[in-house]
Each structure stands twice: as structure tokens, then as C-alpha cells.
Amino acid sequence: MNANVENNKQYVIFKLEDEFYGVPITFVETIEKVTEITRVPNSPHYVKGVINLRGEVVPVIDLRRRFQFQDKELTEESRIIVLALEDINVGFLVEGSSEVLTIEPDDIDKTTNFVNSFDDDYISGIGKVKDRMIIIVNIYKILGIEAN
Amino acid sequence: MDMSQYLDVFIEESKEHLQSMNAILLEMEKEPNEEGMLNEIFRIAHTLKGMSSTMGFQNIAGLTHEMENALHLIRGGELQMNSSIIDLLFKCFDELEKYLYEIESNGSEGPNTSKDIIKELEEIRSYKGREVKDPVKEASVVNPSSNDIQLNEYVHSIVKKALLQELNAYLLKVTLDKKCMLKAARAYIIINTLEKLTEIVHSTPSIEDIEDERFDLSFQLVLISKSDDKILLKELNSIPEIANIEIISLADNVSIMENTGSNEEANLFMEDEIIENAMTQKVEDNKGKKAKTGKTVRVDIDRLDNLMNLVSELIIIKTRLEDIDDSGTQHNMHEAIEYLERITTSLHDAVMKVRMVPIERVFNRFPRMVRDLSKDLGKEITLFMSGEETEVDRTVIDEIGDPLIHLIRNSIDHGIEEPDERIKYGKNPNGSLKLIAYPDGNSVVIEVEDDGKGIDVERVKAKGLEKGLITQQQAEIMDESEIIQLLFSPGFSTANKITDLSGRGVGLDVVKTKIESLGGVVEVDTRKNIGTKFIIRLPLTLAIIQALLVKVSTEKYAIPLNTIKEITTIEESQIRRVQNNEVVLYRNSTLPILRLSQLLKVEGTTEATEDLIVVIVKKGDKTAGIVVDNLIGQQEIVIKSLGKFLSNIKAIAGATILGNGSVALIVDTNSFF
Predict the structure, then answer these.
(1) pTM here?
(2) pLDDT tens, position by position, B2-21
(3) CB-based contact, A80 to chain B, within 8 Å
(4) Dist CA B211 CA B186 (whole Å)
(5) Sheet containing B521-527, strands listed edge to edge, beginning at the edge strand earlier in sequence
(6) Closest approach of chain A CAs to the CA of B50, in angstroms?
(7) B446 vs B48, B522, B537, CA distance in Å?
(8) Torsional class of B378: left (φ above 0), alpha (ψ -120 to 50), beta (otherwise)
(9) Which contacts (CB < 8 Å, 24+ apart) does range B107-110 have?
(10) Per-residue pLDDT tens for B364-396?
């Protein structure tokens, strides 16, 4: 039980456009180096394609495109964070991911307090760890499981 | 002692026993006094009793015990077998099956509901030696549906909070059409549709019960939504087979909102989350579901031995390849690879066979169903079944039952006429229904054929016009087979008086969708006053197919071989444009030309050549030519799904993993027609 509570406060941190973002560690299955990505025609624009993850076909979402940043070349640091939500497996393409942080619920500000245009759509809160700001993303909204 | 490890075996064996019980009961109905069968049923009841009490399932044990007692009297000649006893035994059978289903899905047999049946069994025993009068009327299903707006405190406070945030809260009562066959599926569609727009806070009965079809015809949902009721109604109205929808705004109903308890604070955090979700959307997680038992397959030991042999051969060839590495000549290598190829092919075959189950498992519930239905409807119908031994993939077995039930019910209900009417047309008053299964090449065919009145094409056409599925113009040029296809379109079955129209139409769209999801097709063959035949064609195996790999620009795609008619080259200059569509004259008929690079929006063009490589694909008797850049070759591929997130991608049927580890997509050529 105790371990569980601890887990719920942990976030996998990743980088995008010089900002740090976090996803709850409970959703994260693995973090992979970028392998060959096969484009899927007729899929939403932010779907980069699919990869072969040890025999399973997993869709990859380009978070840059999802957050409406300019496209950028992949680097050595680029990673695919594979998430497992209920019966959906999906990868997030990010510009690097190398740490896990514990963020207390009290240190997370709900974004409903902000008046913001596009990106609070994908954000469920902002976490503060020492002097850093970690943007906690809302996975469901990123996946666009809502009616478009 | 922990019995859970035996649970699978228990379920599997009990199912087999129940199946043979069902078969014997049906036989017994024809020859009630056959002693051998009586003994057999007695034996089955006894075995079930023993097994279930070992496993701790007291309801089953109790019921089978009573059955045994009653059967004992019959065996001893103290009681005469008659049709009401058989009916009662059928009821027992249903009850046992229900318990077993509960065990399978929830791990426990649920509440004891067999008191009435046990009472009937006891009554029979007290009638010893006399003829049994009419059995007690059937126990009605208990349905805890209260129509008042009763929300528990938790739901109250969520609704209240939602209203404060200017969201809408509704109580929705949905009543399904009486004729709706796959209630759970319909309810699922409704709930799914709603979840796109709303947050479902509460449901009566619970979502789980609804999914398991444990509800009568109606259910209630409490919803929180940004959208107003008009939008919800509009969405819901597009779903067929709903008899009635009632939306009550909870905002108007302030009184129920007043009495919220004071423990609201405690729930605050959770509520926030729920309401936040309502503003967007939520994915219901069913993780909380109780331990579901795994699917099992009983396998002939010979097949396992065969598998074992093949695996040992695989190990031998592995050693051989290792040796070649040291001394290797090209020739030895080739030989070894050929050998390896033979083994993998046999291995594939053997594994496939392990997954195969005789279709009997689906078929053997139909005699009972046909018996009950024809009794209810006052029709005389004989069911002929053949090919029960035909083997299909285990996944198909689980999925094909509902569509078949649907088709059979359709045939009995609407296809086969009343006895008087049949006599009028000079037919045998006894209608016949044939259920035939047989393997055909790489697929399995299941036919449901009746000798009823057939489909009235004109009325289907009229209905299609009325429903706005086709225009007057289309109606005039459509041929018979195209009109019959209308039966399968989603909007067709919404009519309430569907029975007016020579049957066929009650949710056939569901049947079609299900079969297509299994990679199969449905065809209809109908002749007026002679009968109707539904032909279902399913692939033998779902997982592995032969495919042609092609290249477009730098991307590789797989086209299933069974959809390909031929491959040819066509000169660019032969292509003509007709109303913006490209066609060529090929073998004296026009062939539409589609460019894969355009269909799949492939970037990076290839240099224009005069000779185009064209893969001609077919769907039914329609053909189309697909232009590709290069052919790579034929290959056996393993079909992988793109996952739930990317389901329903246009023109793509799935994916496969190539030898080099990269992913190639499988083209859904059916979507091009």
C-alpha cells in the first residue's frame, strides 16, 4: 500500500522545446530509443506512425506536433515513452527523458487557475520541485479520446 | 484449500456435461420413456453435483441434488415421464447454465435463484404415481428498476457541483426495442456514444450488469455534460433499436438537490476529478472487474505430440546451422534453410490446429433454441444440421454465436410461414431450417437456409426509399443484389413494424459488422416462396495470411493475396479519364484505376514511367486496378492489430512485422470499392 502511494507521486520527466514535462509513472511501460517508425496514412496529423515494440505494433504520437511546435530533427537524445492505459498502448515521442521525480500533490497547481489559450488543454497541472517547474500532462487529452 | 487452479477445468467439464444434457433432453422429448437416456441424465446430474460441491458451488449442488431426487423416482417407475417434467428439466438446465456463466465471468455463482425450480421439483415428487398437472408459472425476472429519481448522496453532490459549474446534468432513461436481439451490444453502443459527449456518473443497473445483458429492456443513466439535451437526443436518435428515450434535466429538479448530506467535503477531491473529466471525456476502466477466467482450449494429445516433435526438429536444425557457421559451404546453408522452412510451415500448421475447435460447440445450442422459438410462434420447424465437426479458430467460436442466433431467429420469425399459409402455397406445413458448416479452401463456410417465403425485394426497396437510404434515381438503377445489401445498412432496422417487411432487417447491420470484424463476409441468396440462404464465409485462421508485399515510393505495404485477382502492367497512355476517375479498357471491360500513392497520401513521388504495375483486386464481382511502384514478393505475414487507439484507420486493415523488424501496413482493399 505504502509503495503504491509513493508510486502515485512519481512522474517520468521528459523534455520538449526546453521545458520539462511529467507523466505519472504508473502509466509508463518502458522508455525506448527511437527505432524505425512506419507512417500510418489517414491517421491524425500528430500520429508519427507505428513501431515494432518486441513484436507488438505500437502507435507513436509526436508530442511536438501535438503541442503545435515546429517539426525538428530527431537527435541521439530522442526517446519514445511507451504508456499503457487500460487497453491502449501508445508511445510519446519526446526530446529526451532521463529522470523520475517525486512531486507532492500539494506542490501541483491546477491549471484551471490559469487563463491560457491552447496548451492548458493538454495539461492537468504544474508541479514545483525546488526551483523547477514541471508541466504535468493529461494523457487522455493528448490522445484526443474526446470527440474531436 | 485453494480451488482456483481447478476452476478452468471445472468450467470446461461442466460445460461439456451441460451440452450433453441438452442434447439428451431434446432426444427425450421425442422418446420420453427411453431408459438409457434417463440413466444418462441421472449420471450427468450426479457428476455435476459431485464436482460443484467439491468446488464449493452450493447452488449448483443443491439444484442438481433435487434433480437427482426427481429423476430417481422416474427411474424407479414411481413417476411417469411427461412433457411438463421435460420442460422443468429444461428449466433446470437453463438455471445451471446461468450459474456456470456467472462462475465463468465473476468467479462465483451469484445469488441462489433456484428456489422456485426446486419447489417445482419437490412438487413433482409429491405427485408420485399421478399425472403431473400444469407446472407453476414461470418465475418472473426480478428487476430492481425504480422509476423515481433516486440518487445516492455521492451522485447528488457530484451533480450539484456540476450544476454550479454550469454543466448540464440529466437523468436518462433508455428503453430498448422489444425486438432488439443483442441488447448488451446496443447498450454498449449507446453508452459509448454518450461517453463521447458526457460523463456517466451513475447507472442503474450497473455498467457491468448492462454489459453482461443483465437488464430487462431499459436502463437509467445519470449524466453530466457540456452539451445540452437536444444534442444528446440527436446523437441517440441515430442509434437503431431504441424504443424510447426520456431525458430529465436534473437542474430543473431542484428539490432532489437540496437534501445533500454534509459529508460532501470528504469527497471533494474525487468529485473535482470527475467533473473535470466531464468537461472533456473519460475512459472507463474495467480493471476493477472480478477475476475473469482465462480462455482455454482442449487439445488432442496427438496434436501436442506433433508440436513437440516439430520443436525438437527445430532444435536439430539450429545445431546444424551452428555447425555450418564453422565449415559452411553455400550449398549446405541452402539445404539447411530449406529444411528450416519446411519445419516452420509445419509448425505454423500444427499451432493453428491446436487453436481449432469443432463448431459443434456453437451449433449444439441451436436445437433447443429452434424448439423453443417454434413452440412460441406456433410454427412447426425441423432443424437440420450438418458439418458440426468442421473446425474453426477458437476466437471465431466465441464470436460467431450471436450472429448465428440472429440469423436463425430471423429465419424462424420472419422467413418460415405459419403452417396454414405454407399449405396454401403447396408447401410441406413443416418448415425446415438448415444449418450447414463446411471447410472450403482457406475458409470456412456456414450457411443458414430456410424454405420460407424469401425476401420481398420490392418492399426492401420501398423501405430503403422511405428511410432515405437511397434516392429514387438510385432505386431505379439498382439491381436485386444491391437492393438486398440495403438490409445490412445501419439505418435500415430502426423501423418498428419491421415484421411487415418479409422479415430480415432486425439488426442485420450488427451481424455484418461482427462477421467483417472476423475478416469474413456475408452473402444472401433469396428466392421468392422458395427460401432464403445466408452464407457466411470466414477465414480459417485469423492470425496468418499470404500477402503480396509492394512498394510505393519508399514505403512498403502488404496486400492480402486472397483479394488479388491478378497482376499486370498497363501503359500510362491507355488510361482514360471519365468524370475525373481514371479507367482503362482491360480484357474488354472497364477497370477503374486507383493509385496507391494517392490513396495512402504517400509523399515523395516516383519518376513517371510508361508501364505501370497494376495489382487487380476484387470484392465480390467488382474489380479495381491498383497502381504500385514495385512488387517485392509474396510472403506469409502475421496480422497484428494497430491497437485500439488507431482502430478504424481508413484503407488500413492492420500491420505486420517484416523480417528486418520494421512494420509494414496491410492495405484494406475492400475500402476502395
Answers:
(1) 0.48
(2) 566 678 778 888 888 888 88
(3) no
(4) 10
(5) B381-386, B431-440, B443-450, B531-539, B521-527
(6) 39
(7) 33, 10, 6
(8) left
(9) B107/B4, B107/B7, B107/B290, B107/B291, B107/B292, B107/B293, B108/B290, B109/B57, B109/B58, B109/B59, B109/B60, B110/B59
(10) 888 888 888 888 888 888 899 999 888 888 878
Same domain, B560 and B529: no
- Tell me which residue of B615, B673, B649, B668 sits closest to A41, measured CA to CA: B649
Interface contact B662-A52, CB threshold 8 A: yes
CB contact under 8 Å between B652 and A145, yes or no, is no
For residue B416, being part of any structural domain is answered with yes
* Residues of chain A found within 8 Å of residue B602, distances taken between Cβ atoms: 41
Amino acid at B484: I
Residue A99: how many other CB atoms lie within 10 Å? 12
pLDDT above 60 (res B317): yes
Instruction: Find the CB nearest A146 among B281, B643, B652.
Output: B281
d(CA B667, CA B662): 16
Query: End of a domain among B358, B379, B406?
Result: B358
Stretch 35-54 of chain A: residues touching chain B, C-beta under 8 Å: 35-36, 38-43, 47, 49-52
What is the per-residue pLDDT across B430-451, written as a single tens digit (0 to 9) for each? Answer: 889 999 999 877 678 999 999 8
Residue A14 grid coordinates: 521528459
For chain B, what is the mean pLDDT?
77
The CA-to-CA distance between both ends of chain B, in Å, stands at 60
| Alpha-carbon gap: B281 to the closest alpha carbon of chain A (Å) | 5
Residues B534 and B552 in one domain: no
- Tens of pLDDT, residue by residue over B274-300, are 555 544 443 333 333 334 455 677 788
- Reported ipTM: the value is 0.86
B120 is a catalytic site residue: no
| B46 is a catalytic site residue | yes
CATH of the domain at B104: 1.20.120.160
Domain boundaries, chain A: 2-143
Same domain assignment for residues B364 and B506: yes
Counted residue by residue, chain B has a size of 673
Residue B40 structural domain = 4-126
Are both B344 and B390 inside the same structural domain? no
Asked if residue B296 belongs to a domain, the reply is: no
User: How far apart are alpha carbons B117 and B136 in whole angstroms?
Assistant: 9
Q: Could you tell me the three cell numbers for B225?
A: 455534460
A49, A55, A89 member nearest B643 (Cβ): A89
Is residue B370 in some structural domain? yes
Q: Is B181 a domain residue?
A: yes
**Does B511 lie in the same domain as B403?**
yes
Pick the CATH number of A2-143 from 3.50.50.60, 3.60.10.10, 2.40.50.180, 3.30.930.10: 2.40.50.180
The verdict on B387 and B469 lying in the same domain is yes
Question: How many domains is chain B built from?
Answer: 5
User: CA geometry: angle at B104 spanning B103 and B105, to 5°?
Assistant: 95
Cell representation of residue B623: 474489380
